[in-house]
Fold this protein.
Amino acid sequence: MAQTNSLFRNLPSVSEILGKISTDLPNDLLVLWIREILQQSRRNIQKKNKALSKSVLLEQIYAEVQNRIQFFNWQFATVINGTGVILHTGLGRAPLGQEMLDSQVSVMKNYVSLEIDFSGKRGDRFASLRDLLKSLTGADDALVVNNNAAAVLLVLNSLADGKEVVVSRGEQVEIGGSFRIPDVVRKSGATMIEVGTTNRTHLEDYQKTITKNTAVLLQAHTSNFRVQGFTKSVDLGELASLGKKHRIPVVSDLGSGALVDLQLFGFCDEPLVKDVIKLGVSVATFSGDKLIGGPQCGIIVGKKSLIGKMKKNSLLRAIRPDKSTLLILKKTLLKIAQGKIQNLPLFQLLSRTTDELHNQAESVIRALSPEILEQFSISIDATTGQFGSGSMPTEEVDSVALIIKSSQESARSIFERLVHGTPSVLSRIHNQKILIDLRTVFPSELNSLIEAINNLAR
Ligand SMILES: *Cc1c(COP(=O)(O)O)cnc(C)c1O
């Protein structure tokens, strides 16, 4: 113990470090960070069993506090998305645009008619959304919750608590961020009955497992991977017929779930929600911020009697969205219903041609400073981006990128300076070069991008 104490003797005190820092962040927050950093230093010293000088320790700890301050101030900053990943979970998925923001101002500032009717009585916060969703999907009823993971949980808990949910072994997907179908089924209070094999599941496999305890036949969209080769999965229409025959609801977790035909943009992978409903599926769930281009939320559509059970479930209270989410979703769905998808940022990004992107790349390079063009080699190349968030994993999104490299500086260092810059830019490193994919950069951000690249000059 005496030896350990002497190892720690040179560690500065909290107030010593605090004295060196000037920021307007709350003192208690700084103290919290400093304590955590000191704790970490103690662990490091103990592990290495080596004392460090006071000045070295002070410098290390000070640098770490500055790092925490910088990160704290930076989180929620606007970031120019140069990754080419259109629905980037780390960047908040679908961007919503100016028009949605304007509609937010008054809903956030004032009291709003969220849950009252014309007589002033308590009404239904989902009313207008329900009608829009019914008209867009052909379903009898609809409900909105905080995200699609919550939607799946609510559906299964409402329909299958204490009973059995049948899932194909080929569809026991993990979406990332700890959403795994088997775990969600368990959390819902249901028992999962697995059918088929990883690569092949037949209708008879489902048929054989149906008992009087079967409450749901669950189909999960394998949205973030593809099994290729000797495969067989049961057609959703066939599964729906089987469910109907046995009076067991068929639930489809679509994940992305498109309301707009993405063939318009040259993609063909994603089923339309209305087609899935037409096949006779009882309930379908999907995210509001994937291929809909709206706010983060989960949408449930389906049979009125089943949605009715979900409305009565006390779990709904824990996962219902606030006024702001519901308003943005209403505006987004209205645009889709009116055929005005060109007003939604997601579809603006998707609809640009590679020629347009190429022209934009050229205009960026023309506007760069002579210093930058001298210090870095900057060129244009074709590239491919992705949808991201597990949507359409096999579809590549054709794009054009700015390529930046330097003989003096590593790609990693340029990458970090771009992230730290104002404006902040998230790029991609590929073959020791920086790639800034223009598919995910809005035309209105090009001047900021030029500024960010110019700021790289030494
Ligand atoms: C994305 C996804 C989820 C989770 O949706 P969130 O909106 O992120 O909660 C669930 N299931 C599938 C099939 C998905 O693709």
Notes: The chain has 19 helices and 15 strands. Residues 147-149, 173, 175, 179, 220-221, 223, 253, 255-256, 287, 298, 389-390 surround pyridoxal-5'-phosphate (CB under 6 Å). The chain has three domains: 2-74, 79-93+349-454, 98-340. Residues 7 and 50 are 7 Å apart (CA to CA).
